[in-house]
TrEMBL record:
Organism from which the protein derives: Owenia fusiformis (Polychaete worm)
Membrane topology classification: Multi-pass membrane protein
GO CC entries: plasma membrane
GO molecular function, one term: G protein-coupled receptor activity
A Pfam family of this chain: 7tm_1
RNA-binding in keyword set: no
Keywords for this protein: G-protein coupled receptor, Membrane, Receptor, Transducer, Transmembrane, Transmembrane helix
Protein name, per record: Uncharacterized protein
CDD domains: 7tmA_FMRFamide_R-like
Localisation per UniProt entry: Membrane
InterPro entries: GPCR_Rhodpsn, GPCR_Rhodpsn_7TM
Gene3D superfamilies attached to this UniProt entry: Rhodopsin 7-helix transmembrane proteins
Transmembrane helix keyword on record: yes
Domain of life (superkingdom): Eukaryota
Length: 361
């Protein structure tokens, strides 16, 4: 009798879930934490873009911890340990312990996924305003307006996903439990699930992509127009061409990465029953591999946002290097502090001045 491990596609899916999540989690959590620390510096936090990016780093971290950790344990660690005879925790899905956990986990995961996508939209709109109407940006892009935009985004996403507290439940049968739709396939909740899949695809991927692409194309067009006008001036240099090309590449890369990482999973959720024959072992295992690849791509987006939106910015890089130099300065003077316990008060004062002078560089 065949088992899942007899099919290369299933074996590949398990090893994908085993290998990729720890790498993505490490890069994403460390990167988001680093981004938040830099963006919270005095010279950075005054920017409205920084406020969006701080919120994005926090939300993306929640997405990784609630979503990717679950995938890693359920589809990677547990099947591997079971196959090779190691002890494993059951149930392997965090959703399958309590009814409250089932509802709450799905609510938090989908809510944060949607918030993340629309924070990127808010950031794109913020940039459009800064480029097209810079004289009004100080009125339209204030801290209060930014906080309001973040607050509205959070509230709308919460309202959109509050249905999980009604539409899903923990089902139990013959000692097994699983988190699924609250009702049979003909129930209202089952019909709503099909509708929600479309809403989720639009909210999590399609609509943000279209808006972000439109906004970034507008920015690129405006920058090219500025380049053309300044090209008539003697003072225009080739360095401006380089900056424009770099900005254009960054903006288009941001859109490309978002689309490539978020679109496959929402499309697969809609059409997997059409593309794969789930009544056969081979079709079912190919479906498992497709979901493994698309899920990993999706969570990769939450790990890469800080790279695309922070590391690509020269201001962020400058502040990051300042922070690194401060940490290096403190590390260099730390041993000296230990050797000065018996020194005079005057020496201590001089040493303190040295510490501050190094930290302020």
């Amino acid at each position: 009798m065949s088992t899942p491990w007899d099919f290369p596609s299933y074996v590949s899916s398990v090893y994908i879930y085993l290998a990729a999540p720890p790498i993505i989690l490490s890069v994403g959590i460390v990167g988001n934490a680093m981004a938040a620390v830099v963006l919270l510096q005095r010279t950075m936090r005054s920017s409205t873009s920084s406020m969006y990016l701080i919120a994005l780093a926090f939300v993306d971290t929640i997405v990784l911890l609630t979503g990717l950790v679950r995938e890693w344990i359920k589809y990677g660690i547990s099947p591997y340990r079971e196959h090779f005879g190691y002890w494993m925790m059951k149930p392997s899905d965090v959703r399958d312990y309590t009814d409250a956990g089932c509802k709450l986990h799905m609510f938090i995961l989908y809510t944060t996924i949607h918030i993340s996508a629309w924070l990127l939209v808010c950031l794109a709109v913020d940039r459009v305003i800064a480029v097209f109407i810079p004289h009004k940006s100080k009125l339209l892009c204030t801290h209060n307006v930014t906080l309001g935009a973040i607050g509205v985004t959070v509230l709308v996403c919460i309202a959109l996903n509050a249905h999980f507290f009604v539409t899903v439940k923990l089902n139990t049968r013959s000692g097994y439990s699983w988190c699924a739709t609250n009702g049979d396939k003909n129930s209202t909740n089952a019909k709503w699930k099909k509708t929600y899949q479309i809403i989720d695809a639009v909210v999590a991927s399609y609509a943000p992509f279209v808006i972000m692409l439109s906004a970034n194309l507008m920015i690129i067009g405006k920058l090219m127009l500025i380049k053309y006008k300044r090209g008539q001036m003697v003072s225009y240099s080739s360095s401006n061409d380089s900056k424009l090309n770099t900005m254009t590449a960054i903006l288009l890369t941001v859109n490309f990465v978002f689309f490539v990482t978020t679109c496959p999973i929402v499309v697969l959720k809609k059409y997997y029953t059409v593309w794969f024959d789930l009544n056969t072992w081979e079709g079912y295992m190919n479906n498992e591999l497709a979901f493994a690849i698309c899920n990993i791509l999706f969570y990769l987006n939450s790990a890469l946002n800080f790279l695309l939106y922070c590391i690509s910015g020269p201001r962020f890089r400058r502040e990051f290097m300042v922070l690194v130099r401060r940490c290096q300065g403190r590390a260099r003077v730390a041993p000296e502090e230990l050797s000065m316990n018996g020194a005079s008060t005057r020496q201590t004062q001089l040493h303190s001045q040295t510490v501050f002078s190094v930290a302020d560089k």
